[in-house]
Amino acid sequence: GPAHLFRLAGKCFSFVESTYKYEFCPFHNVTQHEQTFRWNAYSGILGIWHEWEIDNNTFVGMWMREGDSCETKSRQTKVHLVCGKSNKLAYVSEPSTCVYSLTFETPLVCHPHSLLVYPTLTEALQRKWDEAEQLLYDELITDQGYKKILKEIFEEAGLLKATEENEVEKQSKKITLEFETVEKCNKEYKQLSEEIKKLRVLLGQHGIAYKGNPGE
Question: What Gene Ontology terms describe where this protein resides (cellular component) (predicted)?
Answer without folding.
Answer: extracellular region; Golgi apparatus
